[in-house]
Design brief:
With 302 residues, the protein is an alpha/beta fold. The protein is 41% helix and 14% strand. The longest helix is centred in the first third of the chain and has 24 residues.
Length: 302
């Protein structure tokens, strides 16, 4: 029997940003900017015990037939969209962080190799987007889930990942502790800040790197139906506001995009325009997620 889920947690301090020591990024940058590209495997027939959130994008629920339309819509990402996004980033000399799940690493290792060859950072992204961590998993099962995900990615990439982004940001009440137990350095699932922060993880160090869930392309376009011009303006407005606020204490913006969505031909141009604006800002440090985590640890220790 599973233990009752806690109603509170003690993972991090409630310390608000105005009560912290000022944060400084390398070269005095006011804003650290990173792109996380979520590379996901959408299963045609998930296992019977897999948890799928009811609002999982790309589908309208399970039907009594093979949902080939939505399966192939999602499959556009690793077949085409990912490489378009890579080209957009590479043309601007920006290295992304690819959050890759285990099914992709096992069944499409060429994708992992392609990311590695372009010098991208590779983070773990669970087993599959149709198999999300939740408190329905017992501790032993969740530990196995995390270990299997890390092992598959480590084998395909040749090195173990430093970071974790749960499918659909999914976690149980114990995930933070289990991630730290397995040697992860940072987690991308807690969108509650504009700076990194340290998490309490069973005596081990784990850095939270909050991503902007409101600017996540799935949330913005698929769920909230923002137009592409409105999304572009929202990201640019956020960059400029964070740069201004970063004069007092530096901020970060981690943008999460998905190849099946942002990699579409008609969306990628807007993504490129956002990146061009960021590159025009001389007070922005463009980095991978892992580089931001490392810089934060170094700054916190100073």
């Amino acid at each position: 029997m599973m233990s009752p889920e806690p109603t509170e947690h003690d993972y991090y301090s409630p310390n608000p940003i105005v009560a912290r020591e000022p944060l400084r990024w390398p070269n005095g940058a006011r804003l650290a900017f990173s792109v996380v590209v979520s590379v996901e495997f959408y299963e045609l027939q998930p296992s019977a015990d897999a948890f799928m959130p009811p609002n999982l994008p790309g589908g309208f629920g399970r039907g009594p037939y093979p949902d080939l339309r939505n399966y192939t819509h999602r499959d556009y990402g690793p077949r085409v969209g990912l490489f378009r996004l890579m080209d957009v980033l590479e043309a601007r000399r920006i290295k992304g962080t690819a959050a890759i799940d285990a099914r992709t690493a096992i069944e499409r290792p060429v994708i992992v190799a392609h990311c590695r060859d372009r010098g991208w950072e590779i983070a773990a992204h669970g087993r599959a987007v149709t198999d999300v961590i939740s408190s329905r998993l017992g501790e032993a099962d969740e530990r196995d889930y995390i270990r299997m995900s890390l092992a598959a990615l480590s084998q395909a990439a040749g090195t173990p990942p430093r970071g974790w982004h749960g499918p659909e940001y999914g976690e149980s009440h114990r995930t933070v502790r289990l991630l730290a137990e397995n040697g992860l350095d940072y987690v991308l699932d807690w969108p509650n800040d504009e700076q990194p922060y340290m998490m309490r993880a069973g005596g081990r160090r784990l850095v939270a790197l909050p991503m902007s869930v409101d600017l996540d392309d799935v949330v913005a376009h698929w769920q909230r139906k923002l137009s592409m011009p409105r999304w572009r303006k929202a990201v640019i407005d956020a960059v400029d506001r964070l740069r201004a606020d970063g004069e007092t204490t530096a901020r970060h913006l981690i943008l999460n995009v998905h190849p099946w969505l942002m990699g579409q031909a008609f969306r990628s141009t807007y993504f490129a325009e956002v990146l061009d604006h960021v590159l025009d800002c001389k007070d922005v440090w463009i980095a991978t997620a892992g580089e931001i985590a490392s810089a934060y640890v170094e700054a916190a220790a100073a």
